[in-house]
From TrEMBL:
A divalent metal cation 2 binds at residues 105, 168, 201, 232. It comes from Virgibacillus indicus. This is Methionine aminopeptidase. One of its GO terms (biological process) is proteolysis. Substrate binds at residues 77, 175. Its EC number is 3.4.11.18. The keyword Cell inner membrane does not apply. Belongs to the peptidase M24A family. Methionine aminopeptidase type 1 subfamily.
Amino acid sequence: MITRKSKREIEQMQAAGDLLVQCHKEIAKMIKPGITTLEIDALVEKLLAKHGATPEQKGYNGYPYAICASINDEICHGFPRDEKLQDGDIVTIDMVVNLNGGLADSAWTYAVGNVDEKGKRLMEVTKTSLDKGIEQAQAGNRIGDIGHAIQTYAEGEGFSVVRDFTGHGIGPTIHEDPHIPHFGLPNKGLRLKEGMVITIEPMINEGSWQSKMDQNNWTARTIDKGRSAQYEHTIVITKDGPLLITDQDK
């Protein structure tokens, strides 16, 4: 069932989004070669607890951590670990914050030290792909308009779009209807309506779009060891255009 959120619910989600943004800004300060993603996980746990919030995905279907930390060829749902980040890595940190019942979801890919030009380009194209999708998140548009904008741009730049994982509705639980694919045809799919809250979170690969699953049954990675990047915002559909409740540039 697709729910349209009340003003009060959106305000709760915005408060969660503000805290999530604070987490990402603290993570950005600490990303460097030699740190571990378990240290990032601990930082997020501490910061959320300080503000009376909880990591919503911890315990979700048995997931054991506050964040997902996906390195290089890992597409999504990477487990935080003791392995030190290396100069030249890229790492995506994805998390869902629950603050007083309001949820917000955002992923960000970080460069660790000196990333090569192709890696930088992958990150730039992925971030722009997200922006292209957000531009289409207008009341009256269809879900296919979002995916089409992302796919045509990313593939036009020589990259591929992951098909196995999509954006989604959010609130009151992590994953709500509708699914938001990052590929597709314009003028197809459900029509977006004011009050809907969705995530757009393109995962863009250097090589093939196909994924394979690790033995932990959570972590997805590329089939050809090409790197993958992801950026994600939680977005409210409003009559005045998309409202980013996880905007880092406010």
